[in-house]
Amino acid sequence: MQIIRRNTYEITVGNTKIGGNNPVIVQSMIKSRSGASELIINEINDLQNAGCEIIRIAVPDRQAVAALKSMIKNKIFKVPVIADVHFDPDLAVEAIESGAGCVRVNPGNMGGIQRLAGIALKAKEKKSALRIGVNSGSLDKKILKSNSGNIIDSMVFSALEVVALFEKLGFRNFKISAKASSVTDTISVYETLSSKTRYPLHLGITEAGPPFTGAIKSAVGLGILLSKGIGDTLRVSLTDSSVNEVKAAYTILSSLGLRHFGANIISCPTCGRTRVDLAKVVSSVEKITDGINKNLKIAVMGCIVNGPGEAKDADIGIAYGIKKAAIFVRGKSIKRVYIDVVLKEFEKELQSML
Ligand code: SF4
Q: Does residue 270 have its Cβ closer than 6 Å to ligand 1?
């Protein structure tokens, strides 16, 4: 199946192009407490090493905007930064002036959309971008009422109302997000938006939840949208580390063949034939391959039934037998070694491929 991406407008966030023919961009958000500068800088570095391509950061007050300005000045960010501002249009303007590549504004909590006009004009002047970030939990009550309480219609209306305002002001460097915590509502909102506007769409399921359920909800919701060609950037929101959000985002994208980043481990679910603690082996392989930026398919299989076939199909693989395991490299069985040394041998072969 080939995914045909929707033809959206191209916008620029910092030095990154979004929409148009550009790949789907992976985004995450800093979770360290605002003001904890050392923790924030470590998290930014971890995210950048994990392949995060845009970093959003909460800017709740003047102290946070000053900290952002200093981090931008000191070149802490190697990727574009989005300032997340709520309630205070003046703070959004200050975030743009501080050098943020983009500011996320929520039309539901800025005191009416006319207050977004000044932010758009400042973004236009500074060649910054904006993200219209509609959220199902903070919709303007008047909009909800005029759409008879329908969440999907209200979210679409709220986003398009701001689009019309920005266009009237001659400002077009923006993307749109419209996140709901319901997966089906999110799909409906983005499908409708995609049919009504060509501005790039940032995908996400808001408050998706703890790691396991959150990743599944995101994979279902975002996967359905991405498979229809909808979405230009995405964030997998998890109650987990931001690095794991990035890993989950790449896993979703690589399962659809849209992006690849680092090691793609495939492993069998195990069954009565397995004679090795495969979960432990896989977790060791994850540790060994953590931080690899080269696209590699790595197979770890529990027995000789499907093992050799799957391992052969991978760049590198292990298929376990009873006392020994076979190591495959690009389709060829290159050695059979005793089980107690297989991981050491695997790592040696892996290193020679990097
Ligand atoms: Fe069972 Fe072998 Fe399949 Fe793993 S590869 S699930 S051990 S049959």
A: yes
